[in-house]
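STRUCTURE REQUEST FORM
Protein name: DUF3494 domain-containing protein
Source organism: Halopseudomonas salegens
Requested output: structure tokens
Priority: standard
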Amino acid sequence: MNRSQFASLIACTSLMFTPLAAIAQVAPPLGTADSFAVLGNSGVTGSTLLGTQVSGDVGSSPTASISNFPPSTVAPPFTLHLTNNAQVQQARTDAIAAAGFIAAQGPGTVLPAQLDSQVLTSGIYSFSGGAADLAAGGSLTLNGPGVFIFQVDSALTTNILSNTVGTADPCSVFWRVGSTATLNSISFLGNVIADGGVTVGDGSNITGRAIAGTGPTGAVTMAGDGGNTIGGCSTASETPASISPIPTVGTAAIVALVSLLLGGGLFGLRRRKVQG
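Status: completed
Returned output:
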């Protein structure tokens, strides 16, 4: 068990033994998934023509199917992972743990399924009927500091021309989705962690992450011709420590070494002559 898995286990265990009334919303530890803005299970498809600009790592595990990159792009210093490497595998494991960590925090305040014109502060929220739907042209306002947790037990849909706005830190907003997420907002705040697939509509902009397939399968699909963005919360992975250069010997040391060798050689020659 690595450190990120151990941290997730400890956090979940602490929640289990905390009285329900005392539980406050807590951001899930993301571990290796922290560097990712887009993470799939059965693949990632970028948008075409104008492409999608992603500020964060992009990868998919166990199916490393990445398409339409380019014209979609990953901004430096982040990485487009074209293989199911160890980092992507660990990111998926940590994303699954994060989804479980969020689910363990309970339903909190129950909202109507239809979101439009609500103004919310930090807290835990769930939805009557399990699904959440932001109306076309509608607006959801998230204001103030702290962590926002949204428990969407089935599907999340944000319709065309909708917006999520406000003073909340998008990186502290988490949407746990029990099935699929379809994001068609002009702007959307938060990290979507879905059991199923995540579809990002044409011209939609996500400040956060699109993580799909914490269930058995799920892809991230950036639909349409693009011109949109995803990211803003990812932290670039630490680069391996640079290899220290081989120590060099200074000129004075070389001169001293040569003098020592020459002196030893002359001493040896003189000794031979005396013995002869």
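Reviewer notes: The longest helix spans residues 251-275. Helices lie at 3-16, 86-103, 251-275.
Form closed.
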